[in-house]
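Below is a filled-in request sheet from our internal design queue. Each sheet records the structural input a requester submitted and the sequence that came back. We keep these sheets so that new team members can see what a complete request looks like end to end.

REQUESTER: design group, bay 2
PRIORITY: normal
MODE: inverse folding
CHAIN LENGTH: 366
BACKBONE (tokenized):
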């Protein structure tokens, strides 16, 4: 049975893991806490960047000799392979820990097996403590490994009646400065930010991260099927971060820097590009998490493709009564085919409300 000390230590490891969001890709975020043989805190750490020491190594270094006979709490099964760093299962064994508790099994076939290695060394090893919390904190990486495509978080900002702009197309600013600052946090945690041609043409967004010290700039992606929205001098071409302009295979791109052009097949049904092909191309470039910022047409295409893993909506206490909705046609023609969501969090951000939700499987009979 898990004790209060076990739960406290694992929850601390989950909190530590979150510190790596935005800096570890294509690796997972992982946290580790070590208690000594008497149950006192001895060391802790988290995976800080790809290619650097893993969470267990940081924790073991801090614990030193106090790790011997102690317990290690890790949010993800300790790895069992040698990549840019050595196997953590071996490091824990050599440190002399007597027990390892991990939350989630490693789905990566190249790294799994750490638990078996630990058990073979005579170390008591158990899985599952606070697994749901650890899964949520590492959802982007776990999804990318299991599905072989980047994790997609769709973010939008709207009025309370669901409008993202007024009837005259004005939209600045529907939400508060606090909500807009929170969006920069989402950008800092993502490998790539995606917008469509409508957003590029109307807003000329820069799509960089601002106001977060030490943040890594995400790849900027504009889905511009006909290659007409991004013109020379566009802010997305300012050189502060890498950029890709996704265009149709037959689009004319002489006006674009050649290194920014990503040619993709058109969608089999409807306008635009093949969303699956776009995600495959990004995955091949090492992108494991995507922040989809809009607009409604592109969001509808992602929903229709079944490629939205989380929704974050910022709702402002504002009414417009007319103007474009947050989501355009998503291939849903009747209520029985509606994409049902489970709300996982609601939080006030300044005067606005942030709602976080994830898709749930369709119920039988729908």
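RETURNED SEQUENCE:
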């Amino acid at each position: 049975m898990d004790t209060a000390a076990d739960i406290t230590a694992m929850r601390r490891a989950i909190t530590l893991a979150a510190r790596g969001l935005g800096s570890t890709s294509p690796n997972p975020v992982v946290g580790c806490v070590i208690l000594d043989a008497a149950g006192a805190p001895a060391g802790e750490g988290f995976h800080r960047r790809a290619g650097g020491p893993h969470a267990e190594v940081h924790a073991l270094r801090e614990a030193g000799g106090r790790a011997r006979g102690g317990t290690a709490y890790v949010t993800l099964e300790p790895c069992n392979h040698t990549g840019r760093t050595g196997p953590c299962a071996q490091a824990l064994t050599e440190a002399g820990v007597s027990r390892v508790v991990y939350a989630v099994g490693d789905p990566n076939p190249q790294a799994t097996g750490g638990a078996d290695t630990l058990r073979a060394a005579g170390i008591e090893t158990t899985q599952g403590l606070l697994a749901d919390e650890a899964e949520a904190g590492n959802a982007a990486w776990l999804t990318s490994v299991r599905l072989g495509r980047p994790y997609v978080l769709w973010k939008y900002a709207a009025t309370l009646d669901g409008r993202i702009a007024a009837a005259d197309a004005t939209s600045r600013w529907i939400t508060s400065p606090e909500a807009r600052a929170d969006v920069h946090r989402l950008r800092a945690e993502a490998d790539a930010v995606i917008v469509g041609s409508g957003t590029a043409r109307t807003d000329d967004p820069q799509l960089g991260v601002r106001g977060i010290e030490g943040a890594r700039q995400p790849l900027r992606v504009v889905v511009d099927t006909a290659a007409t929205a991004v013109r020379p001098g566009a802010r997305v071409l300012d050189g502060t971060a890498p950029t890709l302009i996704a265009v149709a295979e037959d689009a004319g791109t002489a006006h674009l820097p050649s290194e920014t052009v990503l040619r993709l097949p058109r969608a089999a049904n409807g306008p635009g590009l093949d969303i699956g092909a776009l995600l495959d191309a990004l995955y091949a470039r090492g992108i494991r998490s995507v922040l989809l910022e809009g607009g409604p047409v592109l969001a509808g295409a992602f929903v229709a493709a079944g490629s939205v893993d989380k929704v974050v909506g910022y709702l402002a206490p504002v009414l417009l009564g007319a103007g474009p909705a947050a989501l355009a046609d998503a291939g849903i023609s009747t209520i029985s085919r509606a994409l049902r969501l489970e709300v996982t969090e609601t939080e006030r951000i300044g005067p606005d409300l942030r709602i976080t939700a994830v898709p749930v499987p369709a119920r039988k009979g729908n």
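SHEET NOTES:
- The chain has a mean pLDDT of 93.
- The first helix runs from residue 4 to 17.
FILED BY: M.R.
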